[in-house]
Amino acid sequence: MPDRAPQPVDRQLPTEEARDLISLVRDIAQQEITPKAAEEEDAGRFPRELFTLLSRSGLLGLPYDSEYGGGDQPYEVYLQVLEELAAARLTVGLGVSVHSLASYALAAYGTKEQQVEHLPAMLGGGLLGAYCLSEPHSGSDAAALRTKAVRDGDDWVITGTKAWITHGGVADFYTVMARTGEDGPRGISAFLVPGDAEGLSAAVPEKKMGMKGSPTAQVHFDGVRVSDDRRIGEEGQGFAIALSSLDSGRLGISACAIGVAQAALDEALAYAAERRQFGKPIADFQGLRFMLADMATQIEAGRALYLAAARLKDAGRPFARQAAMAKLHCTDTAMRVTTDAVQILGGYGYTADFPAERYMREAKVLQIVEGTNQIQRMVIARHLVGPEGR
Fold first, then answer.
1. Cβ count near 188 (within 10 Å)
2. Is 206 considered catalytic here?
3. 191-245 per-position pLDDT tens digit
4. Which residues pair with 276 in a beta bridge?
5. CA-CA distance, 94 to 40, in Å (whole number)?
6. 164, 162, 96, 213: CA torsion to nearest 10
7. Is 40 in a helix, a strand, or coil?
8. Coil, strand or helix: which one is 224?
9. What is the C-alpha R_g of the chain?
10. Cα–Cα distance for residue pair 97/298, rounded to 1 Å
11. Which residue among the candidates 32, 41, 362, 370 is catalytic per the annotation?
12. pLDDT digits (tens, 9 = 90+) for 89-110
């Protein structure tokens, strides 16, 4: 390997336990995730066994309370774990982020009895979660959702279709937002639905340009019956729960984006050090050196931004604006950096023999999921100048 080969990210971690955790994640990534990533993504294979391994290793519940099987880790640490996993394979990093998002509602808004009953299996018992908010007609306008939950004695009967659901069809539980009252955001409630519930089914997964190993599918609820003790929070509180979940989830996407960007930069650095033209490594040409410098700077800025937002969250302070900023900047950075990585590799970058083209295809979806970057700009602007049309 050339002297200029990339080195692991030098992380600022708050404890020795966190440093040991990052070492564990890097070992798992190197031994279990990276070697099969390209082949399995190309084949569209979902690596369920990896999520079982991550659960056994305590990595699926890191930001949650150890009383229920979590890892008691601050978001500052959890997000850096996500970044390492996403750099190895986005399907895995984003999958862990989505699982954490699906667990958030119960962990933050559930009753003590609900948490005792369900969280241990969700956080450390091998289960995998999915988060159901978007619908075929309501993506950015999530408050317009039509999936209904109708009260029937001590039960609720859920009917409708959710769309763009990561882990749709393979999840063991679904956190579902459904309409229980009036139109608009105040008529929505949250439910924890078992993956094997009668009447629940998933469509054939979408055919995507990237992340082919991560199933994204519509999920149908055909009279799915759940008991009232699976309702999370108060009736009508579901949209507030969803927004709170997304603030945290956007930080997860930010960390995943920086992981993909870092992987693309590492690939570009290694190639630029090895590839020779006109009698010297192409890394010696100023044009490429400046590209690499810009890529590294954007990544460092993105990492600092998502960590600053995470530290606000860990301190119990408002962080919604910073989460939107991090999601916007980090995912735009991932798109720019992966595109530049393909350019640095030239013709090789456009072939599947090198991972740069996969990183570029995967980066695009990060500008869309959990609130498009246009929505992030709206959120940021509202924090700066207030609501539209005042």
1. 27
2. no
3. 999 999 999 999 999 999 999 999 999 999 999 999 999 999 999 999 999 999 9
4. 281
5. 16
6. -40
7. helix
8. strand
9. 21
10. 22
11. 370
12. 999 999 999 999 999 999 999 9
